[in-house]
Design a protein that fits this description.
By secondary structure, the chain is an alpha/beta fold. The protein contains ten helices and ten strands. It has helices spanning about 20-25, 30-40, 60-65, 125-140, 160-170, 185-195, 205-220, 255-270, 270-290, 300-314; strands spanning about 40-45, 70-75, 85-95, 105-110, 110-120, 145-150, 180-185, 200-205, 225-230, 235-240.
Length: about 325
């Protein structure tokens, strides 16, 4: 697809996840990290994290290794369904919150696992840079509003800090970009009732993980949802959905999310015209019914769908 878009890219293919564990004995080899450091850009397929002790999420490890603090997940209607004109961008803080993994068991009497405790970490620095990122994104992309999503009514210290910092930064953009803050549960409901009331949403790590899947559902499911993980000097692009080992090798997966992640990568590389052609080609294939994968009620294989996109690009 990238070649059909008319962009010449030198690809350095690397193994990670279960495939790397089977090939070289570790799920995230040093060669992968070295390659990403060298190029500053990666297009990542869904990776399966091996089960068992000692292995945390490979995706989380990559985000922490390269301090990819901003996770950008756009969702736009391609195939009209229940909602005809969804156009949302979720900006998720990617390195803090509950996903830092600071958790442990608390023993009571003879029960070593009588209780479990997890620590949510929210810093002023982390809050400032993700909220500012959201406003700068909105400015650059000519979006109209930023909604900060939180639970400060209950988590008054951690979420309260996030909200306070957000309000401080919002004042710098007053008169240019509208700002509002909303509680997470109300936001989840309003997204279903009227997604058009939102534009750019910014939130912390776990809430962003949950809301981004909900937003993907508004436009057809995770098979349509791309993501960008951005930091200083490094960017990793991926599909929002995870791995699906149960259908691996069957040729039935919907490649739309990964293709659109490729378009996000082209934007990042300064190939905006090619990225636009890719998005238009994907939309044309879906709307024409020329090829549809199994998850959308069709029978096209992964390769057949991709071939149709390449023809549309030609």
């Amino acid at each position: 697809m990238l070649a059909a878009a008319g962009v010449e890219l030198a690809l350095d293919e690397q193994l990670a996840g279960v495939a790397a564990l089977e090939a070289v004995g570790e799920p995230l080899p040093a060669a992968v990290l070295a390659s990403i450091r060298r190029t500053g850009v990666a297009l990542k397929g869904p990776l399966t994290t091996p089960s068992g002790a000692g292995f945390r999420s490979i995706n989380v490890a990559l985000r922490q290794e390269f301090d990819l603090y901003a996770n950008v997940r756009p969702a736009r209607t391609i195939l009209p369904g229940r909602y005809a004109d969804v156009d949302l961008v979720l900006v998720r803080e990617n390195t803090e919150g509950l996903y830092v993994g600071v958790e442990h068991y608390i023993g009571v009497g003879g029960d070593r696992k009588a209780a479990a405790e997890s620590v949510m970490i929210v810093t002023r620095h982390g809050s400032e840079r993700i909220v500012r990122f959201a406003f700068e994104y909105a400015r650059r992309e000519r979006r109209r509003k930023v909604t900060l999503v939180h639970k400060a009514n209950i988590l008054k210290v951690t979420q309260g800090l996030f909200l306070d910092v957000g309000r401080e930064i919002a004042r710098e953009y007053e008169g240019e970009i509208a700002f509002e803050d909303r509680i997470i549960d109300a936001t989840a409901m309003q997204l279903v009732l009227d997604p058009g009331r939102f534009d750019v949403l910014v939130t912390e790590n776990m809430f962003g993980d949950i809301l981004s899947d909900e937003i993907a559902g508004l436009v057809g499911g995770l098979g349509f949802a791309p993501a960008a993980n951005l930091g200083q000097g490094v960017a990793i692009f991926e599909a929002v959905h995870g791995a699906a080992p149960d259908i691996a090798g069957q040729g039935v997966a919907n490649p739309t999310a990964l293709i659109l992640a490729g378009a996000l990568m082209l934007d990042h590389l300064g190939e905006g015209a090619a990225a636009g052609r890719v998005r238009r080609a994907v939309e044309q294939v879906w709307r024409s019914g020329r090829a549809r994968t199994r998850d959308a009620g069709g029978k096209s294989t992964t390769t057949e769908f991709t071939d149709a996109v390449c023809v549309a690009l030609g």
